[in-house]
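TEACHING EXERCISE
Course module: macromolecular assemblies
Task: Read the component lines below, then compare them to the predicted structure of the full complex.
Student: A.B.
Group: 4
Components provided:
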Amino acid sequence: MSESVQTFDGAKLNAILSRFVGKPGALIPILQQTQDEYGYLPREAVRRIARGLRMPEAQVYGVATFYAQFHLKPRGRHIIRVCLGTACHVRGAEMIFSRITSALDLNGGGTTEDLAFTVEKVACLGCCGLAPMMMIDDETYGRLTPKSAMEIVNGYLGETLARAS
Amino acid sequence: MAKRRILLCAGSGCVSSGAWKVKEELLRKLDERGLTEKFEVVASGCHGFCEQGPLLIIYPKETLYCRVEPDDVSEIVEEHLIGDRVVERLFYKDPETGERIADHAKINFYAKQERIVLKNCGVIDPESIAEYVDRGGYDGLRKAVSMDRVAVIEAVKQSGLRGRGGAGFPTGLKWDFTYKADSEKKYIVCNADEGDPGAFMDRSVLEGDPHAVLEGMLVAGYAVGADEGYIYVRAEYPLAVKRLRIAIEQAEEQGYLGSDIFDSGFSFHVSVKEGAGAFVCGEETALLASIMGKRGMPSPRPPFPATSGLWGKPTCLNNVETFANVPFILREGWEKYAAIGTEGSKGTKIFALTGKVNNTGLVEVPMGNTIRKVVYEIGGGVKDDREFKAVQIGGPSGGCIPNSLIDTPIDYDSLVEAGAMMGSGGMVVVDDETCMVDLARYFLEFVQSESCGKCPPCRVGTRKMLECLKRICDGEGEADDIDWLINVGESIKSYSLCGLGQTAPNPALTTIRYFRDEYEAHIKDRTCPAGACQALIDYVIVAEKCKGCGLCIKACPVEAISGEKKTVHTIDYDLCIKCGACMEVCKLDAVIRGKPAAQKEEAA
Ligand SMILES: Cc1cc2nc3c(=O)[nH]c(=O)nc-3n(C[C@H](O)[C@H](O)[C@H](O)COP(=O)(O)O)c2cc1C
Ligand code: FES
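Instructor-supplied answer key:
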């Protein structure tokens, strides 16, 4: 395990755990806040949560893997969420998804090797009136075409390249 | 002097179209012209007309400006606010008559609606409890707590209100069951998981009028004898969560929430729980499991939540829109509510009208209106004057209603008869470019990936159906596939544990029922009549139209197109990846989706 116990900064997690002492139904909010802090759910965090809640580690994994929101692997600095809800689907969302993923060499989505981007599908961003939609980090973009979507992604790409050089 | 009001829609749709930038520019400009004392800029919830956003409404005449860009702000301030001359070019333009309309109440999209639940949405500042109270807010609760509990339940029963979460269970009856369950401790739960991909009414109500939902929950709490409530909100709705938290805090400060409300001895507390991204958690038993911190898996009913729900206690669970209907019933009286709608379906229903329709957005109409009225009179007809093919109602649990049934009244029972269901209220219009087999495949893919896996009919059955539909879309369908789909679909419906499996085959079954010829075309002729299934089409350059400009050559990412300048270009189908970039850039419409080139050669 490369992500070792020594490098894991547990202080933030302890603060989260202490907020939920004795509260029923706390596991999901704890996982949510842990992920907010660390960007994903590191193995060591899962282990400590299980210990803190006095439940089997398997149960914590069971919950963490059940919900789409939780991630057990590090994620990209920018998260691109392409909506594939119904309204977006009938207005050509697949084309947008495949254009972006092929440009980033990510067939079917996932995280780029340099951890710059994570691309994933979501089912409805709740702005169906402006379909097709996507979201990059906290910004939403609507009325997309494959071309305009790529222009937006290229903007972020330029910025990450600039940072690398 | 009261400030003049400028209303800016800050629903999620308008925000993504740039509403905040407009607001910033507006504040800057007002400040620059020294007008901040005269005007107030209020950010409202969703106004419903997302297609035309960002929207700006200027009082007192309620002049509506559409698609406002930051660059337009200066003109609006100089002309309208200072010069008192309206900016006509930003008015809504009627797609049929071409007329520019200033008054939003006169635009068909709004004029033909009847807004009861959405009365406040897009009109008040959702972060101000005072504005809610000014418009009769919490009067329903005040009245309820002065009544006998049984009388409150009776009023809801008499109103005829049925659950808006999908199944349409009579709300008063559900409250009665919870009321009669014998327990010291009871819970109210609001289902705000809104999982239907393509629906956003619950989100808009939460973001635009959160107090209405709280008031509905409070009335329910009083009626059934509960003192604690949870709102389970979908993970993707951060703005709704924020507005709810503000609303709860304000209601607590003002004494509408908390202990001994209106000196009646009734106490009630509400907390917000954020979902974590699982469609099945919209199902009531799965949702309760999720609140308790477990995997969101459904469990067999009975016991129903009304007798044994959260932590084993009687729990009354209703949808957001259901709760938002309650204040009206109490405030205005059930008689008035029951006068709206049809015999079996009372009141109004909100739909998220989307897809290939001119006016997309939120539409609230009395039950019993026809699909035609919603699509044509309110929706302004099909986009680009294409042919109306069908409307998909009810999301992954619902079905497609074809053109021939466009006069079907929208109520619980008529929709079920037509093979669809009310579901949450997503209404997606599709035209002749949408392939119905592909649409069925799309929904099956969705439910298959969201199936929790607890019961085999749903887990295995939906996968098998999906594989079959994929084959058909890929042009590898076999003659008996259609009957096989019907058979398996019916079995999944009969034997699944929860509503997810029990309704999952609906999109496939209704498209087979109404569009069997499209399935047959895929299977027998290996063609996709809508030209949507990638495997069954090729991009074709029409020789008569191509002027040899070279745009497509440049756009092609795999160098599959060649040809000299000013001569007709050709596509090498061994290289083509069917990305459609050529069709997109062609200014002469010379690239079309056609039958596969190989097939045509064979035929020739
Ligand atoms: C798979 C599945 C998903 C559901 N999703 C939702 C949902 O997102 N929102 C909702 O209110 N009800 C949803 N329901 C219906 C709920 O189980 C429940 O019937 C409803 O919330 C009850 O409220 P009502 O009586 O006010 O309609 C879903 C049901 C199933 C089977
Ligand atoms: S379907 Fe894409 S935003 Fe709703």
